[in-house]
Design brief:
It is a single chain. The chain has 311 residues and is an alpha/beta fold. The protein has helices at 2-31, 38-41, 105-114, 139-156, 169-178, 198-210, 217-229, 238-242, 262-271, 289-292, 294-306; strands spanning 64-69, 75-81, 89-94, 118-123, 161-167, 186-192, 249-254, 276-281. 44% of the residues are buried.
């Protein structure tokens, strides 16, 4: 009996050590600000970040560098491009996981050159030129975007019309932002390839990339994230936030998305109680809808925004 008890205790200790080691590994891979080379090296991880596509602007843009001090003391960087003619319309664009502001140049060019918007693209905390040593999966970033909205109101005017557009993690970020108390100037949100929550997405990625179950790795990694980054992974929920949203939302998702499953788009759409539309692009991979069907994509956004913004 003592022998069996000893074996059991040893087995428990081994499992705990393995789980702790795994939680540190996945924190490093998924949460900590580090090089995400695995996104390029692993076929299973392909397209987890939005790839930047070549962009041809009508004229070479000269962005103004903007800085913002976050509520927790981080220096955040944004890049502002005024419309060719004076405009009160501004789009704030959010990039994806392991990306940077200018990954979203194609979207910026569409809004600026075709729709006459001022454009603000931002480096999320822990990305690009912004400071921060962890990724918040949209949870901490939602507060940053409330601050960016305030900055635009100061810069462009109290009568501004603001649209939020995000891709992948950026889409989840603008959805989480939608659940906050926003000024009426925020007229609409475009969410392209958003996940329902960080927990659901990390669980999905854990299974797809590593063939591992959620328990106990996600739970232990979440605890480590709370200790190091200040939030539990389960808190970062776009699903919960869209239930509180009062802002019209256009959800966009591709049927070929192996990074964020299409089912998450349907979950988000069903949970949303504000005016909403769902645009599903047949065959589009993660974040690739615009590049697959650019004319239809632009037409859909234009039609959606006409109901809420003076185009």
């Amino acid at each position: 009996m003592k022998y069996l008890l000893r074996i059991l205790m040893i087995a428990i200790v081994v499992v705990v050590i393995v789980d702790i080691s795994a939680s540190f590994y996945f924190y490093h891979v998924a949460i900590e600000r580090t090089s995400k080379d695995f996104l390029k090296q692993s076929p299973a991880a392909a397209n987890f970040a939005l790839a930047r596509e070549p962009v041809k602007w009508k004229e070479e843009p000269d962005f103004e560098d903007l800085t913002l001090l976050s509520q927790d003391g981080l220096e955040l960087h944004g890049y502002y491009l005024p419309a060719a003619t004076l405009s009160k319309k501004t789009v704030i664009i959010a990039h994806g996981f392991a990306g940077k502001a200018h990954d979203m140049d194609a979207y910026a060019a569409f809004y600026h050159d075709q729709q006459g918007f001022n454009v603000l693209m931002t480096d999320a905390r822990g990305h690009g030129q912004s400071t921060g040593d962890y990724i918040g999966y949209g949870w901490d970033e939602r507060r940053d975007y409330v601050e960016w909205i305030g900055l635009i109101l100061q810069k462009v005017g109290a009568d501004s019309e603001i649209v939020l557009h995000g891709g992948s993690m950026g889409a989840a970020t603008v959805l989480m932002t939608s659940g906050e108390s926003l000024p009426p100037n925020v007229k609409a949100i475009i969410s392209d390839s958003a996940y329902t929550s960080a927990e659901a997405e990390l669980t999905y990625a854990l299974g797809r990339m590593y063939h591992l179950a959620k328990f106990p790795i996600v739970q232990s990694t979440s605890l480590l994230t709370k200790l190091r980054a200040g939030y539990f992974i389960g808190e970062a929920s776009a699903l919960k936030q869209v239930k509180k949203s009062k802002t019209p939302i256009l959800f966009i998702h591709g049927t070929g998305d192996l990074t964020v499953p299409l089912s998450m788009a349907y979950e988000l759409y069903e949970a949303c109680e504000s005016p909403k539309e769902l645009y599903v692009v047949e065959g589009a991979k993660h974040g690739k809808s615009y590049y697959l069907v650019p004319v239809s994509y632009e037409k859909k956004i234009t039609e959606f925004l006409k109901a809420y913004v003076q185009l």
